């Protein structure tokens, strides 16, 4: 992916930038937020599942009906254990810009929001100018510190761990309608935020240099 060149911001694209950011102590004026998104397929049963009875588990027919797809955004603040999941119809620059506007409102006192994300084509300052008035796009662009995971290293984004938990705890079944999905992920979000579930991240820059000694200069 080729990012446009901005004369007043720096787009950070190395694993060191990501790992060093994770090592920083909590600072409410510079919150660290991991953003990611993924498509989810809506599925319905063709035949109603048979409920469990003593000695026999519930039975679900292998055949299913496709009911379209939706997109899920997740914003995860690892140092506070808070996350937000939003269901959208599409995954365009407009939806991405709306999520950044929501983050801007969520941290009104922050001097800068450190935003960690992958290199999806819409995940750039250009998306703001595609959908917002130039003055608002320019203001919003400067609110963020743009930090990107390298290609083939999106696993450095802690939001990936949240996806794994969401898939295992909430999405590992058939959900047919967008409204039902919104209800389910909202309940999951409230429960997880109430417990302030954080990530015990131990993969530091020093560990990365040792583990990837042969390739480190190439990926950095």
Short description:
The protein is an alpha/beta fold.
Feature tags:
globular; 5-stranded mixed sheet; 220 residues; alpha/beta; 20% strand; 35% helix
Summed up, the helix count is: 8
Please tell me how large the radius of gyration is.
Answer: 20 Å
Percent in strands:
15-25%
Compressed to H and E, one letter per element, the order equals: HEEEHEHHEHHHH
Helix content range: 25-40%
* Tally of DSSP β-strands: 5
**General shape:** globular
How do the helices and strands line up, and which of them pair or pack?
Blueprint: H1 15-22, E1 32-45, E2 64-77, E3 82-88, H2 93-106, E4 113-117, H3 125-131, H4 134-141, E5 144-148, H5 159-171, H6 178-194, H7 205-211, H8 216-219
Parallel strand pairs: 1-4, 4-5
Antiparallel strand pairs: 1-2, 2-3
What does this protein look like?
Helix 2 crosses helix 3, helix 3 (125-131) runs antiparallel to helix 4 (134-141) and helix 5 packs across helix 6 (178-194). The model has no long low-confidence stretch (mean pLDDT 89). This protein has 220 residues and is of the alpha/beta class. The chain has a five-stranded mixed sheet, sandwiched between helices. The protein has eight helices and five strands, in the order αβββαβααβαααα. The longest helix is centred in the C-terminal third of the chain and has 17 residues, at 178-194. A hairpin with a 4-residue loop joins strand 2 (64-77) and strand 3.
